[in-house]
Amino acid sequence: MGIDDKAKNAADAVKGKVKEKTGDATDDRDLQAEGRKDKTKADLKQAGEKAKDAFKD
Question: Is 55 left (phi over 0), alpha (psi -120 to 50) or beta?
Answer without folding.
Answer: alpha
